[in-house]
Amino acid sequence: MTAPYLLFGPMLAILGRLGAAFVLGAIIGVERQLRQRNAGLRTMVLVAVGAAAFVHLGARVGGGEGATRIIAYVVSGIGFLGAGVIMKEGAQVRGLNTAATLWSSAAVGAFCGCGLVGEAAGVALIIVAGNTLLRPLVNYINRQPLSATNTEAVYKVHVICEAEDVAAARDLLGDLLEAANYPVQSMDVLTESDDRIELAATLIPTTAEAAELDRICDTLAADPRLSAATWTISATL
């Protein structure tokens, strides 16, 4: 009885740890799959199982020091995998949450690889809670209007003028913003036609006073060379 146990005991241990990583990774992955994310059920399972296998191997070969070294490699290595699901579409960046979930799934696998299945289950439940229970709160916050007085965001001041007045409009816009201590990051032509041109001065991301920007736009609009002036605000990435 002793010999078979010695033979199969370590195998049963690794299978138990990999099985726990499989189940917990699947729990995380189901939520991702239901939302049709780039990294879904199979990816989360493979990340968790792979992390568990590497950490367990490090522990078997190098003991506690070996496991610690492998965990460090897992933490950094999963970052490259997560970078593959992050995409930039225009001004929007997508996939950050999925990349963070991949990274967290690797943590679940690392716990399992060390035999800390209870802790791994706790982490997995918190990950699922973060991806589900916090969603209504995130949606509520995102629906709130941006505050011009306390939001660090990108501000743009727009002016519309005749084609022959572009140089004068650019100088006037820059001078007024400089006088108000609002540094300009860039000044671009947004729309251009034969008789009308829209300029936009993008301010360096900071906080701004709505009333002060209104006064700047009023001054710009009063200039006979400009037909309109306004400002906009958008969130930083």
TrEMBL record:
Pfam families: MgtC (PF02308), MgtC_SapB_C (PF21770). The chain crosses the membrane at residues 6-27, 39-58, 70-87, 99-129. Keywords: Cell inner membrane, Cell membrane, Membrane, Transmembrane, Transmembrane helix. Residues 18-139 form the MgtC/SapB/SrpB/YhiD N-terminal domain. It comes from the Bacteria. It is a multi-pass membrane protein. Residues 155-231 form the MgtC-like C-terminal domain. It is found in: Cell inner membrane; Cell membrane. Belongs to the MgtC/SapB family. Virulence factor required for growth in low Mg(2+) medium and for intramacrophage survival. May be involved in regulating membrane potential by activating Na(+)/K(+)-ATPase. This is Protein MgtC. It comes from Sphingomonas endophytica.
